[in-house]
DNA sequence: CTTCGAAACTGATCTCCCTCAGCACAGGAT
DNA sequence: ATCCTGTGCTGAGGGAGATCAGTTTCGAAG
């Protein structure tokens, strides 16, 4: 058995994929591109922008307000789509920053539609992945609107854990995490100062440690209870269509 | 010339539609359903949920946290999709409340895919509409995360204005709006008390009045400047593909 | 080995917004 | 006619988190 791509692993969580379908999936991958950490991936503001599938590395999409503050909307990890939402837009509506060095495969809209036509189960799986991405943005919005700083932070780190587990990059004990406290602050709608205090509290409560690029979860169950994490919205409890 | 449906009007803002395409659009509309104000539209948590296109009335989708607070994620107005995101989900991840009496047409996923295959331009337009919905959620998230109460509130009411104008239900002078201050509070991540104060401030600054189901914009330009409203993210500045 | 800069961390102060508690008003129900 | 509930509105007090102004740590570059 060959190692699956993160993307294939992820889709497999929703639809059990046959060898033929896995092969069809491979044809989606276009040109491989790599991007450097810190340098924004810029879109030229033209039609026919292309989307990517992340092979390795972490990325975030964000918006900057006129005041200069920034809000990170979502993080992409291996197996995730990149820029799918705005393929059809005339003007890019957000920026994209690679957090680490990134490898990604270009995906052409035409190829996507082609695969959809030929393998409907794959179409379902891909659309599921897109819906799931949107569900995460929604949950993020709810967190910022209604959860306090500690719940919000822990909730976010738990979501990340769940997502990474899906592609084999985390266990309930923790995971490697290249984010800085500034990234967290920009994502959570908090100041970096306050994120720091919240992380200290989580550490002192022996729930979770965020340090040196490593998230260590000391008590998974207690953490989940403490912040009322309900992963239903991720809809990833084992493949449904077999 | 027959009056277009709100949905057709909206798509027309992105792709100029031919008579043939308008006819194809009509075939999308399935069974007509109506819902009563206040009574949640409940999904049975089953696969093959259906989506709707709103013909008349206002709706909101929201989530309730264990603590009992609620966060409204988005409002749907005539011409908008309803429940498209979660068609593929096993468990409904949010609730839907009709704010007024609502008329909506059921849309079957199969019909949608069928139309996509036959009229690619229509497919593009529909996918554009879906992307635009997501872009609005993203902008909503950014607002909650980084804008203060006044900017956030005014920004939201301006977005609503722009959306309603697209389906002919608003001008730059204002629009009819069935939302209560509680709706605003739940959507903006504020308390109803504070929403009330913010609305007073907007009124006293002669920018905008929110009263008796009517939003009156006193000075459109000044309001836009004041809260730095940039509608690029709505991507609706005239049809692109002709 | 030293310098530099980014990231982590801390204390003091301030402020925006929440919570609580209450009043006013309108429309529907009895 | 009056009750009652939902909505709008207001004041007082408190708190979560922002801002300001640092120090410390550590790895990378010189």
Descriptive notes:
Two copies of one chain form a homodimer. By secondary structure, chain A is of the alpha+beta class. Chain A has two domains: 6-130, Jelly Rolls, CATH 2.60.120; 149-234, Arc Repressor Mutant, subunit A, CATH 1.10.10. Helix content of chain A is 41%, strand content 20%. Chain A contains eight helices and eleven strands. Chain A has helices at residues 6-12, 19-26, 109-118, 120-146, 149-166, 181-188, 192-204, 220-227, and strands spanning 32-35, 51-56, 59-64, 70-76, 81-82, 95-98, 102-107, 170-171, 174-176, 208-211, 214-217. In chain A, the strands form three sheets. Chain A has a four-stranded antiparallel beta sheet. In chain A, strands 8-9-11-10 form a four-stranded antiparallel beta sheet. In chain A, strand 8 (170-171) and strand 9 form a beta hairpin. In chain A, helix 3 crosses helix 4 (120-146), helix 5 crosses helix 7 (192-204) and helix 5 crosses helix 8 (220-227). The first copy, chain A, is globular and about 55 Å long. The model of chain A has no long low-confidence stretch (mean pLDDT 90). At the A-B interface, strand 4 and helix 4 of A face strand 4 and helix 4 of B. Chain A binds a DNA duplex (30 and 30 nucleotides) through helix 7.
